[in-house]
Amino acid sequence: MRSGPYKIIIGLALWLITPVETFAQSILRDAETEAFLHESSDPIFRAAGLTPQSVHMYLLHENSINAFVTGGQNIFIHSGLILAADDVTEFLGVMAHETCHIACGHRLRRGEAYANAGTASILSMVLGAAAILAGGTDAGMGIMMAGQSVAQGQFLAYTRGQESEADLAGAKYLETVGINGEGMIRFFDKLRDQEILAQVRQDPYVRSHPLNRVRILQLQQAVETSPSYQKPPNPALEEKFQRLKAKLMGYLYEPRRTLRKYPPSDTSIAARYARVYAYHKSLEWDLALTEAKALVESEPQNPYFYEIMGQILFENGRVRESLPVFKQAVDLGPREPLIATAYGQAMVSLEDPDLMEKAIPILEDATRQDSGNTFAWFNLAKAYAWSGRDAEASLATAERFYSAGVPMMAVMHAQRAMESFKMGTSEWLRAQDILYVSQEAAEKLEKQRRRQERQRRLSFED
């Protein structure tokens, strides 16, 4: 977990993951957000002939408007895109469009932009995509984020023909699942005005997804003939989307700005969500807890509301009080590894031997469900060490650094684990896998570093 200004809001439902401090962007992880992304988008993936479990979505902490596909079936969404969408149909319009880039087999157009991207950025994309496809999600993200041009969409550009195909296919996917495609048109209309701006002032989505009036007219014709034309958004999905927007605003914006948008007079769940984060960031613990309790009272079977209340108590030093609240969240959301991780973290932080033992199966289950959860691995390693299970602690630490994209540290701890486990056991074999993959990744990164150093020296000499 990253230290500094984000430390006080660690976990408050949203987890800020930064594998290496120098990366320009970070992955925002939140149990409720990830559940919404799949609930809303999986029908679109199925309509496109994709297997939803094979499509991975990542929310990036980035204010600009962008979404892009890379490394196979991986969709990256900027937080700014969600905040810019007025309703869930606008967001799903973009998701439908991006889905075609996967299902239609579009390849990125490189050309001049490719040449300008730089060897390091291109290599980082290739290595990161390979790592993700091999199952090391966070490791792949770590490598990819090293090439900032990838995440910023500097050379992710599609041809206009591909864009038109994605528009029409996306509209067809939306029609298949009964969603009004007008949201896609409205969102693209917002971006079309940026075409006249200098490239440096354009949002990345405009640069990588060229827009023009002909495209929008073609899309409008397809949407207006759909049986779902002018159909209002699904009320349940719309409510969840507005909650997600409020959470993101509260988490990312300055409290004053959030409270202007969601004043105390607004008692909607979305507004309370936003104020929980705003008050928490302002260190107004009592006000944050009051809003969290109101959320729990409004929906007593909602695990995410208990998660937020537990996290506020935890962050305010009331750790033991947070335990039953976290337990309730886990009981209500047994398939939410991020919630289980928060519960395990609270137990481990008390450094109580009995709680350490109880935390181990909870954190083990979290890592089984989400093998790229570096914070779960960190707390599990600590619990193992406190319980005298040093071999397991070494393997868990190796898993942590492997997932975080820190290959040299993964190599060191994998070697320790192999020395501790009996040869041929499942634990020994897993440590060996991490060792071999991390050694190869470390060698490639070292070659990349040397190449960059040579390029810098040549540039200096010139």
Summarize the structure in short:
With 462 residues, the chain is mainly alpha-helical.
- CATH fold assignment of the domain at 7-235: Zincin-like
Give the helices and strands as they follow along the chain: EEHEEEHHHHHHHHHHHHHHHHHHHHHH
CATH superfamily of the domain at 7-235: Metalloproteases ("zincins"), catalytic domain
Low-confidence stretches: 1-13, 15-24, 109-127, 129-139, 141-156, 196-202
Biggest beta sheet attributes = 5 strands, mixed
Q: Which CATH architecture of the domain at 7-235? A: 2-Layer Sandwich
Fraction in beta strands: under 5%
How would you write the strand order of the largest sheet? 1-2-3-5-4
Radius of gyration: 23 Å
Q: What's the helical proportion of residues?
A: 55-70%
Assigned CATH class of the domain at 7-235: Alpha Beta
Instruction: Tell me, briefly, the overall form.
Output: globular
How far is it from the N-terminal to the C-terminal residue, by CA?
A: 41 Å
User: Which whole number gives the mean pLDDT?
Assistant: 84
Decide which structural class fits the backbone: mainly alpha
Structure, described:
- This protein is mainly α and 462 residues long.
- Among the domains are: 7-235, Metalloproteases ("zincins"), catalytic domain (Zincin-like, 2-Layer Sandwich), CATH 3.30.2010; 389-462.
- The chain has 23 helices and five strands.
- It has helices at residues 31-47, 79-84, 88-103, 111-117, 119-133, 137-146, 148-151, 160-176, 182-192, 204-208, 213-224, 235-252, 255-261, 269-281, 285-298, 303-315, 319-332, 337-349, 353-369, 374-386, 390-403, 407-420, 426-461; strands at residues 14-17, 27-30, 56-60, 67-70, 74-78.
- Strands 1-2-3-5-4 form a five-stranded mixed beta sheet.
- A hairpin with a 3-residue loop joins strand 4 (67-70) and strand 5 (74-78).
- The longest helix is centred in the C-terminal third of the chain and has 36 residues, at 426-461.
- Mean pLDDT is 84; it is low at 1-13, 15-24, 109-127, 129-139, 141-156 and 196-202.
